[in-house]
Amino acid sequence: MSFLTLLDYASVLVFALTGALVASRAQLDVVGFAFVACLTAVGGGTVRDLLLDRHPVFWVDDPNFILLAAGAAGIVFVTAHLVESRMKWVIWLDSFALAVAVPAGTGAALAMGKPPVIVVLMGMATGSLGGLMRDVVCNEVPLVLKQGELYISCAMAGAITAVTAIWARLDTGPALLACGAVCWGLRAGSIAFGWHLPVYKSRPPRS
Amino acid sequence: MSFLTLLDYASVLVFALTGALVASRAQLDVVGFAFVACLTAVGGGTVRDLLLDRHPVFWVDDPNFILLAAGAAGIVFVTAHLVESRMKWVIWLDSFALAVAVPAGTGAALAMGKPPVIVVLMGMATGSLGGLMRDVVCNEVPLVLKQGELYISCAMAGAITAVTAIWARLDTGPALLACGAVCWGLRAGSIAFGWHLPVYKSRPPRS
Amino acid sequence: MSFLTLLDYASVLVFALTGALVASRAQLDVVGFAFVACLTAVGGGTVRDLLLDRHPVFWVDDPNFILLAAGAAGIVFVTAHLVESRMKWVIWLDSFALAVAVPAGTGAALAMGKPPVIVVLMGMATGSLGGLMRDVVCNEVPLVLKQGELYISCAMAGAITAVTAIWARLDTGPALLACGAVCWGLRAGSIAFGWHLPVYKSRPPRS
To answer: Would I find Transmembrane among this entry's keywords (chains A, B, C) (predicted)?
Structure first.
């Protein structure tokens, strides 16, 4: 199994866990858990594959991704009541999912020889769109757009790191590892220590 | 006209009616009715075709689908005021739409020789995503995720029925009929008699 | 640079400005501005390209579209506080974006020799879906579905104008100009003078 495939599996597993936890907050049944878990797990990578005309889409080619996501949802369904603070788990698991999904997306676009801007965008899309779909469908405030937090910025910084590393003639493996590390480090710093970029503030809050 | 095409037409017609009824609840004009009706009617099948790289997309190939959905929207626009309880109509019509869209999606994936997991997923996606788009765009609580009801479970059960029937060497026609029957039976039982799967319940409702 | 490419650039630029202004209402940081601006700017055209199987998608082929949208977002980030009434700017800029995006989508479908119904739909999708994504993601009431206003109707009228003009043997250039003019004229009339189509009104407002 290649490193890229491994990243895809890891990202599917961790995003599925976050999807199932959000489903538990919406009090769905076990099939609802599996539905939201699958949507979250494969959403970002699916958009990436459609945009790059990369067929068959990764999980259509290998249904194990779906079985993995559904299995993770089942485990969360029977164990989520053991978890004290589910939203905290969602946020932290989501940070790990981001840190594997961004290199997965970046790596796929690099392997297709796309120009740097597209590589960075594919990393950002793969990392953020599954979680965005999860939050829109379950009616949560999207993590990706939460005010005063770094999220999409972490994805961008990670993807730019990978592109820079490749440009500096590093191998793909280390470049993607650096990408994931930058991504997770910034996101964790934002969650734990409140790191953020200046936000736009209007004098009258809404006009 | 093949049986599969017939299923596509029926699903477009009935989903369009539900879309137009939801548009009436949002008090849109006649073009808004047609827009929501078309989105609902072709949304699920479009996602199916994009995921399976099945080009041209069914309604790009045959614009009659769009004319049918728009016509249905027009009829609803001038007659919806005659209907007593529109939400009840939406729910019941939607159950019929589900019961034709799931076999339509399942049949299309079967005809492409996809493996069972993908066939089941395509049935589920075709059946549920049009209605999900309708509800997200019109800001209704998505039927597909309503708590304590069977919906996506009905789609899954129906699609699994079709796959099992094919595996047992039934012809495609009867297999898809069985698929639709299981799908509609479960959904109708859920609406009329409250059938449901156990839902996840946390002690403190949100943590 | 062809006339069609020019339309694509203009539509990306103006839609990006509206996206960034909506991001300012959600008080995002500069990367959030760029994200919403890009989603709005390329969303409609991306759906058009995927539906028509037109690969590579226009901005994957030419990353300058993304740089343009991100640059526009940056300029809005540092200047939006100078603007008195941001929502008014969003609405008027959006009307110009619509009036270039609809001819852009119509022209692309015409160039592929699609039948009239599909050409009209592609114009409507390209014109409206980017703004719809912007509003759903940022949790605004979608402009496209605002009650008692012309929006999707303007897109339809413009696209029908183009198809009729081509059918009357006009050149593509003038046909697309007429399309944009009709589109903008109707939308501006709706904003400024309240032009609208009769909306559906139920006796009891929601049943």
So the answer is: yes
